[in-house]
Specification:
Layout: H1 6-32, H2 36-66
Helix pairs in contact: 1-2
């Protein structure tokens, strides 16, 4: 398996940011709703987004073990 490209890493970081925002939105909705069905749905969705976030974090950690310690030097 090859290390991820810079663009791929940017996509993963963006996705993690999006998942984090969705977790927070679900949590806030769950706290403020009076409807038990919506509360349950929000809690379920929050768990799903947390799973997505952790999966993306695992990809990043796996990449760190594959990535070179220092970028290759450019010769001129």
């Amino acid at each position: 398996m090859q290390p991820l490209t810079a663009k791929e890493l940017e996509y993963i970081v963006d996705s993690m940011s999006n998942e984090d925002l969705l977790i927070k939105q679900c949590a806030m909705t769950s706290i403020h709703t009076q409807n038990p069905q919506i509360k349950q749905l929000c809690q379920h969705m929050m768990q799903r987004h947390q799973q997505h976030y952790h999966h993306l974090m695992n990809v990043m950690q796996h990449h760190a073990s594959l990535a070179p310690v220092q970028p290759p030097y450019m010769t001129q």
